[in-house]
## 1
Amino acid sequence: MYNIPYMKAQTIYALASAPFKSALAIIRISGEDSINIVNNIFSKDLSKYKENKIINGDILDKNEVVDNVVLLLYHAPKSFTGENSIEIICHGSMLIVNQIMLLLNRNGARQAEGGEFSKRAFLNKKFDLIQAESIQDLIDARTNEAKHLAMLSLKGETSKQFLPIKKDIEDLICEIEVHFDYPEEVEDIQLSYSDVISKINNVLLKVDELLSISKKGKIIKDGVNVAIVGKPNVGKSSLLNALINEEKAIVTPIAGTTRDIVEGEINCNGIILHLLDTAGIRQSDDLVENIGVNKSKQSIDASDIVIVVLDANSQLDDYDKEILKLSENKKRIIVYNKSDISNKNSNNISNLYISALNKEIEPLKNEILKILNINANDFETPSLTNARQQGLLEQIKYYLNLAKEDASNLKPMDLVSINITNAYECSLNLVGEMCDLDIAGEIFKRFCVGK
Ligand SMILES: Nc1nc2c(ncn2[C@@H]2O[C@H](COP(=O)(O)OP(=O)(O)OP(=O)(O)O)[C@@H](O)[C@H]2O)c(=O)[nH]1
Ligand SMILES: [Mg+2]
């Protein structure tokens, strides 16, 4: 039996490295008691180190050495979490890791939940919520470009883009309130409805600009869904294979070869394209093929970009026309395939020719980047890249527009100010200054354990 000491502010621990055999492993501990707890199982007296320090020594279970480790000691508030913290770098055997974690447990620490270290750092104001969210983006990043943006955001560059908007809204509220509450003191400075409208317009311009780069940022972070559609036999599966440079989808001269969606993925100049090869769209009596055709039609709606593949050797028929109609409201690229066995026809509805068979597809790749309207600058511009952040920015826009409408209709200033205050609350929420703890909890729960 072990006596579990009384727990103050709970001290947490977690394995911060991958949970399998490796050269080294890192166990992270944070909380008021972390230094005392580790002191109970360490060969040197940690209480004599008053500064942050790297210390070599043994982890002990009673008098038995569990492992010789390097210990990174951090005193609050000079740590990631802002609390007393320790990182134990031990040998990467899961046996050793589990033994050390068991010792920590016996001495009063508990296993951390996903994202709990970051949550504590956020609560201790080490960073705002936008920066906190970028930590997970950094871990999840699959391209150098996405990693670079997450890194900038972690350094606070995204917050810097947003904070002027928050400040402008705050200033506007103050100005209205001063005029409302102390009219005699500011009587020489008139605040007219047109002043308020013009100030709101200035903020709205900044909001629109940030929304527009944020949409591009989200594409750089998450990639886009691209559906490849067309009638049977035009070369959709061949195109998928050419794009991913792998013979993934079955290709035959038989029309109706693809029945189900076949997925593939490429990094196209820094943008991840989630590609969907679909069943050729046509009328069919075959039950299975019909299910596939329905899925193809649904994939048009579900995708960000549609590539409509036409056969460069034939005139548009009713199926082509139906597919063009189905995709007319989407961001789409119309491409003529099999250019290797046809002459380019100036009457064709697109001048984009490729040969999936010969892997001559560069013009299509360039067109995808063009249609996304992403340029070199966008890879350097941090922005609000997740749905929560973008949703709140949209709400700010919505409330500011309501306030503008009220001001245009000469409604009382205190009424105008209600919607500006609503916009302000959204901005506080965005950076986490007025964040519902449940929402913060939800955000951090998505993080890895140990982060
Ligand atoms: N010459 C030539 N043939 C091609 C090209 N692309 C595809 N093909 C041929 O066209 C036939 C059909 O190709 P697929 O890629 O299976 O066509 P699909 O559009 O996926 O057809 P379904 O799955 O039936 O809808 C195969 O024989 C391919 O080799 C091309 O660029 N040039
Ligand atoms: Mg196919």
## 2
Amino acid sequence: MKLTVNGNEVEVTSEADTPLLWVLRDELNLVGTKFGCGIAQCGACTVHLDGVAIRSCVTPVAAVANKDIQTIEGQATETGLSPVQQAWLETDVAQCGYCQSGQIMAATALLAQNANPSDPEIDAAMAGNICRCGTYPRIRKAVHLAAALIAEEQSA
Ligand code: FES
Ligand code: FES
């Protein structure tokens, strides 16, 4: 089956019902997307499907053929980190880091829908992304900074 991952067309041979997470990690070696719970409860495996944040641990690969799949590996460009990654770095969000690729993907999808989310809107949008290290206050701060960086980029 053919997939489009981070703008590249790739061919994979996994069974149709294999979760996208394992195709990304085991077949395509894109290991930035993490396994946490495997039952759509933690958000560690968040990727984008046609721009929408989804749980790759419960998404069969057959359901994503011919769709645009974006992972954390596709966020930085030749010109540098994405604004959300930059904000994460400047805010020093990560503690152990395990949940953070999922957090960044969720935040990126949120900011594409809502350019300037309030704290309650951030909390609501990110509620499905669990962080065992409790980095939520820094995540909130980083989302605000990312919103400002994106606005700056757009006005330049
Ligand atoms: S691993 Fe997919 S939501 Fe937890
Ligand atoms: S930074 Fe450790 S789980 Fe979130």
